[in-house]
User: What shape does this take?
Amino acid sequence: MLEKNHYRCALVDHRARLHGHAEHTRICDNKRDTIISGQNGIGIGTGKRGLHSVLGTRRFWAIAQARFFPEPAWQTFSFWIPLYLVTERQMDLKEIALFAWLPFFAADLGGLFGGYLSPFLMKHLRVQLIWSRIARASSWAR
Assistant: This one.
């Protein structure tokens, strides 16, 4: 019985997140008022932010740099290295496949274990939350 009720609550919560709490039909008025009163209103009803206001924030530049600088290296791994190995080193597809998977595997490891970097930095090096997440984002290979 408890499991069935748990799944029912999860379904109601999923529908509420999908359609919004305000117009959800299976939430009683008391619960809806509690949810809506607890929201802080960030990003609600403020409209679109202009390009100038987005470009003026430090957080945008931290994320943009973390994505901008590793991208040329990733494109080199994806496109130029296989072309180089075929044209200059006369390697066939089988020979390339022996080693071409290594950069992608390293990127997968970075994606899997990169999530542990932020809590590690916060716990052991006393780094603030936002800076630990920026360090994690900039450490990803892709």
The two ends are 45 Å apart (CA to CA). Residues 82 and 99 are 10 Å apart (CA to CA).
